[in-house]
Amino acid sequence: LAAADPTVVGAHLEGPFLAVARRGAQAEEHLVAPDEDLVEILLSAAAGTLVQITIAPELPGALEAIRRFAEAGVVVAIGHTEADESVARAGFDAGATMLTHVFNAMPGIHHRDPGPIPTAFDDERVTLELVLDGVHVHPSVAQMVFRAAPGRVALVTDAMAAAGGADGYYRLGSLNVTVTGGIAVLSGTRTIAGSTLTQDVALRAAVELAGVDEVTAVTALTATPARVLGRAEEWGMLAPGFAADVVALDAGRRVERVWAAGREVDTTARAS
Q1: Could you list the active site residues?
Q2: Please, are residues 101 and 130 in contact by the beta-carbon 8 Å criterion?
Q3: Distance (Å, rounded) from C-alpha 27 to C-alpha 8?
Q4: Angle (CA) 264 266 271, round 5°
Q5: Beta strand 127-131 with 153-156: parallel, antiparallel or unpaired?
Q6: N or C: which end of the chain has fewer CB within 10 A?
Q7: Strand order of the sheet with strand 246-249?
Q8: Distance between CA 55 and CA 123 in Å, rounded?
Q9: Which residue blocks in the chain are alpha helix, DSSP H?
Q10: What are the CA-CA distances from residue 261 to residues 52, 103, 113, 243 (Å)?
Q11: Burial, 186: exposed, middle or buried (Cβ in 10 Å; 0-12, 13-18, 19+)?
């Protein structure tokens, strides 16, 4: 797909090297600690399309895996983790440059045990993903993230198959998901199972709910993700030589027209 379609960037492997206790909507039976052979198998199978991987740095062999993926040009993120401050710092020192969806599937901030979040705030090398749908992170906390890490917040959707679709029953890998009022949870639980978020909704939430100024919010959707993925010379700006990917919004920040790779996209079936 990535070879055939310029709008498909590649893969983010959110697993299998994750902490069982922080697995979220991941099937426990598929989670493993990294070993050298498995890391090489994943890199080989991806054939250059592996863009990002999320790893819990406290797992045996994780720091070596972070170094190897980073060496191979993969953006490594820390997430789905029980790491304390020192382990998180070791992960960033080993080459991780992102925090997968800050506050979700990781220890919160404790005044005597700060964990990975303040560690990421303090490290200028680290970009923090933020799912800003009003469910994953409260808007006031989202505002704190923008203030604590200026220029280093990347808004992401964490969207699953129900994005743009109706409420109902879905599958996420081998797990059943129920979507009610646009909120996706593992069926029969309160565990969030990704989201149905689209980035126009994230932009509105950033500006209207979290009080983030519009330039900062748009940067978190464009230039910041491009930079952390090493594509700042290709994406994220309206300028000659950059990808012709454009979203035109109305005064209410709702999608009016979309161009992808220079071609206008039919938006008549878009989600509101």
Answers
A1: 158
A2: yes
A3: 25
A4: 125
A5: parallel
A6: C
A7: 246-249, 255-260, 263-265
A8: 18
A9: 36-46, 62-71, 85-94, 116-122, 139-148, 199-204, 214-221, 223-228
A10: 22, 33, 46, 6
A11: middle
- Split at pLDDT 50, 70, 90, the class of 11 is very high
Cα 2 from chain centroid (whole Å) = 18
Closest CA to 39 of 10, 9, 60: 60
CB distance 100 to 125 below 8 Å: no
pTM tops 0.85, yes or no:
yes
Asked whether the beta carbons of 62 and 54 are under 8 A apart, the reply is no
Q: How confident is the model at residue 269 (pLDDT cuts 50, 70, 90)?
A: low
Angle at CA of residue 269, ends 267 and 272, nearest 5°: 90
What is the per-residue pLDDT across 214-266, written as a single tens digit (0 to 9) for each? 999 999 999 999 999 999 999 999 999 999 999 999 999 999 999 998 999 98
Total residues belonging to the chain: 272
The CA distance from 25 to 105, in Å, is: 10
For residues 157 and 163, give the distance between their C-alpha atoms in angstroms, rounded to a whole number. Answer: 9
